Amino acid sequence: MSIKSKARNALPYSVAISVVNILVALFGIVLLVRHLEASEYGIYALLNALPALFNMLLALGYDQYLARYVPGMTSEDTVRDTVWNIVFRRSVLIVLFSILMAVGFSGYAQYFGLDGYFQHLSTYLVIVVFYTAHDLLKKSLLARFSQKTVLFNNIIHELGRITVIVYGVYIDAQLLFFIQGLVVVQILSFGVLSIVFLRHYGVPPLMKVLRPIRETKEEKDYRWGSYVDKLGGSFLGTDIDRYVLAYFSTNIQVAVYAIATRILSKVMDIYPNRMFLYLIQPVIYSRYDENKDNSQLNEAFRFLCSANNVIGFLLVAVFAPLGEELLLLVFDQEYVLQAYWPLLIFLGFLMLENMPLTIVAKAIQKPKILIISKAAFIFNIAVGIPLAYYYGAAGMAVATATSGTLRNGIIYLLINRHITLRIPWLATLKSIINAVLTILTIMLLNQVIIGLVLFKAIFGVGVYVLLLKYNRVFTAPEINLLVSLTPEKFRKLATALV
């Protein structure tokens, strides 16, 4: 089966994975925010950022290694041995680091507002161990186009999470109950995916798991380059920002920032280069490895930029005039209104920050470009600390959004030393025009209709889609590509929309 056929078959499952994750996760966030006090939700937000902290320190580039090289492995035995070897080695490192964090708890708890929450932290560390192992298995299966398997596992996992949260809210449980319930869900989810993986690829020989995997110099350079890249990227990420806010501001500001960034992370899952990431990566990497065609890589880059802009400017067009009403309607907590500006700032910068430049750099196997770009984290820390101290969550959002844009600017300039990337400026301008006209329409509607925020949001989306139809963002070849990748029963709808 060709790469394109595999991609087409996996496409509906990629969409379904993202939709399930978005809807269920947002529902869970809403329930927790409504149930927990602001300061307690701030504690949960800090603990929820632990996987990012561990990944920053202990990933060693193996997660990116799997995404890059597993698609090209011709032997299933090689896939099996490589994946389980990496899962085992990462898990051992995380267990050791978890023990150190638990032992040294009293030394740092007071600085982050965690005093009295030792049991919460130590329980959440169990989640981190199984989450990381589960994530590695999931990325490996996605790299092998097993989106259907991952979809069903995601459904089981998210249903488990929601069951814990709904039941916890029903019995008026404390924070610790939710964490303990999520431990059970994470272990079960890892167990299910492990059984599926073992049934498909078999049980690896013990020595293949224990011995370090053999890497070529190119693979090792790529892995370590990716690790340093991700290490720097973590300092540009919103999860680590929570610890900066906890140290220099308050747990309530942590809660505000966490709400904004959790919504943002789920919204970003709608972006094509995020929704189809584990589908796009193997397709682009495999095709580029075959022919080293820079023009095809450029076409993919321009297409993803345009597709991202369509979604990004739609979100800004609806959220800018209606955001505060939507937040209050959904979360029913006055303090959540403080998340409006951080979220709007992030959405405003997202088109620049979320350009698919990383995929291009990895396709041409220039991870050093990504490493150099992480110098932007110095800006994030230098600017973020004073802004967090004086302006809380909104200040941190400004620092992180601008530093992310600076990082992408560096990547773009360095990539152009190797291949010439062409940004679709005309398509971007058309998306801006569509967004501005939609915002003006909603603002006029606000003058006529009081309340009915959901109606106005849906109406705004309809206006934007109509404008997209007549002020086309995609070129004719891009439309043909989009339609050709769409499953046959949805092609008429895709053609009508674009």
Task: Kindly describe this structure.
- There is one protein chain.
- With 498 residues, the chain is an all-alpha fold.
- The chain is built from 24 helices and no strands.
- It is globular.
For this structure, the quaternary state is: single chain
Q: Approximately what portion of the residues adopt beta-strand conformation?
A: under 5%
N-to-C SSE string, H for helix and E for strand: HHHHHHHHHHHHHHHHHHHHHHHH
Main sheet specs:
none
**What is the tally of beta strands?**
0
The radius of gyration is: 22 Å
Tertiary shape = globular
Produce a short descriptive summary.
By secondary structure, the chain is an all-alpha fold. It contains 24 helices and no strands.
Question: What features would you highlight for this structure?
Answer:
single chain; 498 residues; mainly alpha; 82% helix
Write the layout of secondary structure elements.
Blueprint: H1 3-35, H2 38-48, H3 50-58, H4 62-69, H5 76-103, H6 105-108, H7 118-143, H8 147-170, H9 175-201, H10 206-210, H11 217-234, H12 238-248, H13 251-268, H14 272-275, H15 277-291, H16 294-331, H17 340-353, H18 357-363, H19 367-373, H20 376-415, H21 425-448, H22 453-470, H23 476-485, H24 491-497
Helix pairs in contact: 1-8, 1-13, 1-15, 2-13, 3-7, 3-11, 4-7, 4-11, 5-7, 7-9, 8-9, 11-19, 12-13, 12-20, 13-17, 13-20, 16-17, 16-21, 16-22, 17-20, 18-20, 19-20, 21-22, 23-24
